[in-house]
Amino acid sequence: MEKPNSTRGRVSPGLALRNFLIMAYTISVDGLRKRYGDVRAVDGVSFDVHQGEFFGILGPNGAGKTTTLEIIEGLREADEGTVTVLGLPPWPRNSTLLPRIGVQLQASSFFERLTAREQLQTFGSLYGVPAEKADAMLETVGLGEKADVQVEKLSGGQAQRLSIACALVHDPELVFLDEPTAALDPQARRNLWDLLREINTGGRTIVLTTHHMDEAEVLCDRVAIMDRGRILQLGPPAALVRGLDAPARISVASGLLAEEDARALPGADTVSDDGVSLTISTRDPSAVVAAMAAKDALAGVQIHGGTLEDVFLELTGREYRA
Amino acid sequence: MSTFASFKSLSRAMYLGFRRDKGALFFTIVFPLMFLVIFGGVFGNQTTSKAKVIQIGRVTVLDQARAHDGAELGKIMSITGGTDRAAALKKVREGDADAAVEQRGDSVVMHYSAADQVKSGTVRGYMESIVQTANIAVTGRPPTYRMVPEQVEDDSTKAIQFFTPSLLGWALASAGVFGASQTLVTWRTKGILRRLRLSPAPISAVFGARVVVSIGIALAQMALFLAIARLPVFGLKLQDSWWMAIPLVVSGVLAFLSIGMVIGAWAKTQEAAQTVTQLIVLPMAFLGGSFFPLDGAPGWLQALSYVFPLRYLNEGMLNVMMRGLGPSSALPQIGILLGISLAGAVVATRLFRWDAA
Ligand SMILES: Nc1ncnc2c1ncn2[C@@H]1O[C@H](COP(=O)(O)OP(=O)(O)O)[C@@H](O)[C@H]1O
Ligand SMILES: [Mg+2]
Prior knowledge:
The structure holds two protein chains of two kinds. By secondary structure, chain A is α/β, with parallel strands linked by helices. Among the domains of chain A are: 52-73 and 102-242, Rossmann fold (3-Layer(aba) Sandwich); 248-305. Chain A starts with 12 loop residues before the first helix and ends in a 6-residue tail after the last helix. Chain A contains eleven helices and 13 strands. Chain B folds into two domains: 3-43 and 159-351, no CATH class; 51-151, Periplasmic binding protein-like II (D-Maltodextrin-Binding Protein, domain 2, 3-Layer(aba) Sandwich). Chain B is 66% helix and 7% strand. Chain B contains 13 helices and four strands. Chain B has a four-stranded mixed sheet, sandwiched between helices. The interface between A and B is medium-sized, with 28 and 28 residues. The structure holds adenosine-5'-diphosphate (ADP) and magnesium ion. The site of magnesium ion (MG) has 5 residues of chain A, from helix 2. Chain B: It comes from Actinomadura rudentiformis.
């Protein structure tokens, strides 16, 4: 016998609205948890990613970035929580969703002893991409000259580019990149940033993890700062820094200004002199700079605002160490 | 993105990876062929070596025999001349020659060493028959009785006839088990499997590719084995139904692949997979009858040999390629090998993991 006030078969207005919103988001993650034995790798993570957004997950090693990403990609099953990607659940393996997403795994995974071109053609053909299109992608990531080099002989940066090319070869709407610039030298990192921006301007949604603060600041529309399986703060990098009310740091060459005099300046909080430069930390940089100008002590002045590093320090009480 | 396109490109990737792997090429193709050449060469010409006889001075009967029938005599003994009796006897004593022969009046004296009685017995037999023939010739009458020697083994039991299918069986077993277990473990530990899992390619395309590439390699191995064994030096002779070895080889490869897939699905590291593969393939090769014929082996060993799939493959191939049995004689072995393949595939599917952890 059916209960008189059964709601079975009817969807409450709240739930309908939520479903509608989930459909509107490219990714919707709610209350995600994943444990490995005693380790809470992901410990209650929720966020949404909009279409066309460049979304970053920033955190030190072991924060749970990869685990979060792999649950969203459908490589791992969450212990708790829900994930919707392009309106579909990624777990269990969902072969209607797979062609629409592109993934670059943290550990690059290539077929052994194939050349860059063969590699990309092989991956492409799994998605029905013709060989010429795969070759064109090789040019896009700047590996045209390395087409016939076996993957084992590519440099770190080249391998990373190839790995990204493999994620993009079938022109997915949504791209996941797990620490694409880790282990690259600064020059290679900057080159890769240009490539990533290009990918994003095509209207694709990108989700990127990184442990480099500067990378998140430069590339991402919004950043989730993650530590110990939790998201500590989420928002556009500039807003996070501004919201922090972090002190600015003003530094000049040592010897221009005595430490005591500097401390006496209006607005100066702390002062340090390491023998090379004198640094004044302040929440009122304009007052300090004006006073320094009056003392004619502005030669070679540098002013640094707050960074995501300060945000991390503020949130965790720990120095940020990737 | 048809399954077939995925299957084709994965097969190509696997084949190229194999062709460019010098170690794998050596161990699956060259190494077994080396065994074939060595075994076929060593045991292939196992005719007893000629008796070495030193003739001291003039020995009339020997000279006559040589003049009369030199070619025949040359096949069974090599006769060197010498006048120094002491040196000749020393050589016999030291085993450098099998006998020394001299003539004293009407007697033919043969010096021999008791050290190698088989050899000296053989030479003695030859010498007696030479003397006997000479005696008959002296009477001027044709001999009444003749002896025609004939070896019971004909060409078909020459060593190459045994070693070609048996060593081929071993080569297929090792290539099949290694190929499957290594692909699976390497692809898993290197993250290729999880990368494939993120593509729409079905798993069947991954396994199908491995199977097809392995069968292709196996047929190439078979062709090379037969081509080399049929060189005049080795002189392999195939029986009418030899072609039945092709379906045998295919079903054998399936069986070995499924064993390899079980190992590959179970093993966590490449080293573990390699060790277990060796632990299975080597005993299987020995006890499955790849290195020596099991016909003369004790009963318990023969019974044990049927534990190994290789035994069925070897037996089936020997039957159709060498023993001249009809095509249908291979059907039981094919059936058993396919059964093993199926059982292995079921277990491997159960154990299969995309991910290293
Ligand atoms: N497969 C696994 N088995 C056990 N522990 C794991 C596994 N993967 C990750 N972990 C643990 O979970 C935590 C989060 O790891 P991960 O998601 O890789 O972090 P990140 O990518 O931010 O460096 C770490 O403590 C890590 O040791
Ligand atoms: Mg990681």
